[in-house]
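Hi everyone,

Forwarding the result from last night's run.
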Amino acid sequence: MSPDLYESDNISNKSPKLRYAYFLQKIAQSKELWTLVDSDGAFALFEVENTTVISLWSDEAYIESNLTPDWADCIEFKLDMDTLEEILIPLIRQNGYLINVFPIDSRVGHIVSLNDFITDINRKL
């Protein structure tokens, strides 16, 4: 379920750490999360402080503020928990990517390692 305008504005103004906590709560409830794919269907990767990251959101509605010209060719992509576990997590692990959770208005979200991300999700599920 998409957030209402009040919820969207409220969470968008929170710190990256609080947005991360919100993200974990929401994906535990909905069992889905969102990312971006490029025009070829590959997961979109970005550089943050010389580190490759993949960005994740709890709802498609939060992605729009990040679709700057650098991300213009990207498409929102919904993941269920099986796809996260079977495809995305192995990709992140194999390549040593970090996870950029809930970036807003082209500002970096909460950067988390895969191990911490998995631990945090498992605590919420």
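The two ends are 18 Å apart (CA to CA).

Cheers,
N.
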